[in-house]
Specification:
This protein is mainly α and 316 residues long. It has one domain: Na+/H+ antiporter like fold (Up-down Bundle), CATH 1.20.1530. Helix content is 78%, strand content 0%. The mean pLDDT is 81.
Length: 316
């Protein structure tokens, strides 16, 4: 990628007025409520009777993915802009995506483990998303060979905590309570909300980039390749760790899908709805990486789930 192309990507400007951002936040919270409808407390009991796979899932999502993403961004060097590198790290710092449970079901993976990992990573995101992004983001900015002077990454903790708690914490709690005490309502809403989440994210991306469609199309081949490599890394981490640890094959499928599907909608909400990048240069590179991740992991997730579905081997 040339410096001109990187500059073009970083100059992409996406803004949201208060009304548009409130709408996005409400719908994203509603989507997370839909995810939580499939979570029942007894699932955690079953998973933690044999906690090995759950602990490995947390290791993959919360430790290895951000760390390996940092190394990947460094390895890409000047082929990506600093803001694109930060976009990769932001995605890796987000919790599991809200369609991972659907993909695990399609791929005949361990559904209880999938739902548990989504719930745990989402609950821990209030603390670990800003921490991982601050840690690896600053390390990247200070380690990478960056010609331009880039400000130190300072996380507005209360701003970010408040956003994550509202978008994830409250809907997660309400969804679990609905599943526990109103099971008929939860079952009726669960599947429709899974599809709504996919449609919502696609609409969110389209609306965000409507005013920058020409620049977006010019750089999409570069963004496509960066996200493809990053997503392959995430999927590989989950499958490799599960294989090395010799967990049941269904659990390996779950670890693969859960690590490869990230809640990039939260990443967009943090960029557009908080003061996360006050003082930074235009951060179009972060936006396009995060937005395309949200589209691509639907495609890659469906592909991986279909391959798993067609694989007869259920356990080893």
């Amino acid at each position: 990628m040339t410096q001109e192309t990187a500059a073009l990507i970083d100059q992409i400007d996406v803004t949201m007025n208060a009304g548009g951002m409130n709408t996005i936040n409400i719908v994203l919270a509603f989507v997370m409520f839909g995810v939580a409808l499939g979570i029942k407390p007894k699932m955690f009991v079953e998973v933690f009777k044999k906690p090995k796979s759950a602990l490995l899932g947390m290791l993959c999502q919360l430790v290895l993915l951000p760390a390996m993403t940092f190394l990947l961004a460094l390895a890409m060097g000047s082929w990506i802009s600093p803001m694109m590198g930060l976009g990769m790290i932001l995605v890796a710092s987000c919790p599991g995506g809200n369609i991972s449970n659907f993909m695990s079901s399609l791929g005949k993976a361990n559904i209880e483990l999938s739902v548990s990992l989504t719930a745990i990573s989402t609950a821990l995101a209030v603390l670990l998303t800003p921490f991982n992004f601050w840690l690896w983001g600053n390390l990247y900015l200070h380690t990478a060979s960056i010609a331009a002077e880039v400000p130190t990454l300072v996380i507005p903790l209360w701003d970010v905590f408040k956003t994550i708690f509202i978008l994830l914490g409250i809907p997660l709690t309400l969804g679990i309570l609905t599943s526990q005490y109103l099971p008929k309502v939860a079952n009726a809403l669960k599947k429709p909300l899974q599809w709504i989440s996919i449609v919502f994210f696609l609409a969110m991306v389209v609306l965000a980039f409507t005013g920058n469609i020409k620049a977006f199309l010019q750089c999409i081949k570069y963004i496509f390749l960066v996200v493809l490599i990053h997503n392959l890394l995430a999927l590989s981490i989950g499958f490799a760790v599960g294989s090395i640890a010799k967990v049941p094959y269904q659990d390996r499928r779950t670890l693969t899908i859960e690590t490869g599907i990230q809640n990039s909608g939260l990443g967009l909400a943090l960029m557009l709805g908080t003061s996360l990048f006050a003082g930074f240069p235009p951060h179009g590179g972060m936006l396009v990486i995060t937005a395309w991740w949200g589209i691509w992991h639907i495609i890659s997730g469906l592909t991986v789930a279909t391959i798993f579905n067609l694989t007869k081997k259920k356990n080893v």
